[in-house]
Every structure is written in structure tokens, then in C-alpha cells.
Amino acid sequence: MCKQYSRLLAVIILSLTFVSLSVALDEDSERDDFFLEEASSLASVQEELPLEQNEQEEIVEVGAGWAWGDVLFIDFDAGQFVVNYLDYDKLIKTDIVLFVDEKTVFENAHGLDRIEIDDSVSVDYIITDSDKNIARLITVERIQQLNE
Fold first, then answer.
1. Is the full-model pTM beyond 0.70?
2. How is domain 61-147 classified at the CATH fold level?
3. Is 29 within 8 Å of 37 (Cβ atoms)?
4. What is the pLDDT of residues 122-139, one digit of tens each?
């Protein structure tokens, strides 16, 4: 998702640069050459951006995991959140960054925007070849539900 926003931002900047260049150019040939060099350098940056298939990156699953802990941080715009959990292999508390996508299923919440800081969550997730943890099932456990 971040690549999509980066690509979109680069296209917008490039478009705005060409529009401002067409307005700003006048008869002064030195000034024209300067602006044309700047525009071509921005175009080369645009060409270096990776092409995406169907506006989404292909997800290659290389592993799976499970974490149960408390939500420390939520970034709604990026679709990610951080959970502090006990790593049972190392027997230490650690943090994990998890992402949500269109395949993420929520229990006891209708979406990431319904999860709050300090909520206890159980998360089944996949690990991609780019070491990104994508949540597949998020179960929110709130204290009031545990008392019932």
C-alpha cells in the first residue's frame, strides 16, 4: 500500500512540475534549459519506480505466526498496528508490527478503526517474503467481555 501512495505522489509531483514549467517558461533560453533539465531529472525518478501489477503488490507467503497481547499503537492511514506480546520461544515481551488488508477478518470489531490502544488482541498472521506481517484473523478481547 505504501508503494501505491509513493507512486501516486510521484505522479502528482511530476504532473505539477510540468504544469508549473509550462507557465514559468519564457523567452530566456538559459532559464528554459534549467527548467527542462529539472523536469527530465524528475521524469527519470518516475521511471525508477517499480511497476505494480493491478495496483497491488503480489504477496508471497513464507510463514505464519500467532501473537496475543496488547495494542500499543495504531496507524489507521497505513493500515498497521503494533502489539506487545510474549515471545514464547525467547520468553521475553516484544513488539510486532502487523498490517491489515482486504483479506483480514475481524472478530469482536468491525475493522481496524474499532480497535483501541490497550485492547487485548489475538492475531493470526502470515509472513511475506519481504518480512511484512499481514494479519489474517484479529480477535479483540475486551475486559467487559471476559467478565460475562
1. no
2. OB fold (Dihydrolipoamide Acetyltransferase, E2P) (2.40.50)
3. no
4. 999 999 999 999 999 999
